[in-house]
Amino acid sequence: MEKTLLIKNARVWPSARAEPINQASVLVRDGRIAKVGRFTARADVTVDADGQLLMPGLIQSHIHLCQTIFRGLGEDLPLLPWLRTVVWPMEAAHDPDSIRASALLSCAELIRSGTTAFLSIETVRYTEHAFHAVHETGLNGVIGHCLMDMTGGYPPLAVDIDDALADMEALREGWAGHPRLRLCVAPRFALSCSAANMRKAADYARENGLRLHTHSSEQVEEVELVRARTGLPNIEYLHSVGLTGPDVGLAHCVHTEPHERELLRETGTHVLHCPSANFKLASGIAPIPEYLDAGINVSIGADGAPCNNRLDQFMEMREAGLMQKIRLGAEALAARDVVWMATEGGARALGWEDEMGTLEPGKRANMILVNQDSVHAIPSEDPATNLVYSNVASDVLMTIVDGRILFEDGALTTIDEDRLRADVRRQRQRLLKRSE
To answer: Torsion over CA of 142, 181, 128 and 188, rounded to 10 degrees?
Structure first.
């Protein structure tokens, strides 16, 4: 990593709700932002932004690195059949090499499209190989080890909670103190984990200062099954087993009742919005403006490639805005609010709000340079409107994480893409054979 990096002659957008600063610079020292504004300085490496937009890196708060290698296999299915007939059999067939290939493929796509940090749920085995892959790429990540027991009704992925927590402990000890990566505890969802499993998971997370990450209220059938099994609405049930609070992220939250929304607000639980996945699996439209109006933190993620099929935060931002306008009218959910969810909202969901999400001195130098001169963006001058409704992922010119340039001049700097493509194709074929 360079000791000092200067991005000059940029249109610097420090945060979603701030105004951009033209002809400005950002100075990075030892991976952190040292100065933002109009100034001159020397640095070990200087990049002339040529007037393009320099902004906080995008943050995805719900993805599955282990599923990217399944891309294109779970087409035209609703959630529960999609899980039982495609995703779970493929996850059960994973080995360390296929996990690594899938994680590297995910990171390549994330970096190219301007995502600098993420929160994930992996599968029940081999999570250490996802950690190793992400470590190599330079990204920031909070990586979740998935918990499932026999409640899920899929024996190949059932792991006794004590064994699962032993795996968690090995991961925690092995990756403690890593500067860019953290572990989180990820009980899959209420239908695949017993109450005891979830309570023990929540207790373990809090005893060790780890975040909790699960799915909730994605589809009507799921909500109905949880109520039939537990006698409670989904989020109320999760609250009863310890899975609400400022250290908890709930993916989806499409179908919630008013008192559940109040519970989210009271407990400070984070909502992880996944627009494209909710469209493709026909889950519905989450009440995002209502959550924001209530003071609930909302962030954005792509979910897994088998239900999306891209890990593209630009697409997610666009769809997040459009779906609320269809639902509530053209005035709903301003573009700046969408960008806020994709940056600062994500930082809060990851528990890294003091480290990222805005360009401020002292924070990690997680930044992206975005082309605002493409023919599909000009002549608009508003960065939020451009980012949400005009820009596309290929407009990302540079991705910087902790002051290290991970993508520039159309190429990744930490991943050999030709080798990755060959390995992904090879591992996918082996995975399909093992899943037969």
So the answer is: -10
Whole-number Cα distances in Å, 128 to 124, 134, 143, 156, 407:
11, 10, 10, 19, 25
Give the Å distances, CA to CA, from 427 to 44, 98, 140, 291: 40, 5, 25, 41
Q: What is the CA radius of gyration of the chain?
A: 21
Task: Out of 300, 325, 350, pick the residue that ends a domain.
Answer: 350
DSSP state of 238: H
Q: What is the model's pLDDT at position 296?
A: 98
d(CA 237, CA 235): 5
Mark whether 207 and 269 lie in a shared domain: yes
Say what the pLDDT of residue 3 is: 86
Any idea what the CATH number is for the domain that residue 250 is in? 3.20.20.140
Residues with pLDDT less than 50, the chain: 1
- Predicted local confidence at residue 275, as pLDDT: 98
Report the amino acid identity of residue 167.
D
379 cis-preceded (ω within 30 degrees of 0): yes
Question: For 282-308, what is each residue's pLDDT tens digit?
Answer: 999 999 999 999 999 999 999 999 999
The pair of three-digit structure tokens given for residue 48, joined into one six-digit string: 């002339």
Q: What is the DSSP letter of 138?
A: T
Structurally, the chain folds into a number of domains equal to 2
Could you tell me if 274 and 404 lie in one domain? Answer: no
Whole domain around residue 215: which residue ranges?
58-350
Burial class (CB in 10 A: 0-12, 13-18, 19+), 4: middle
What's the CATH code of the domain at 376? 2.30.40.10
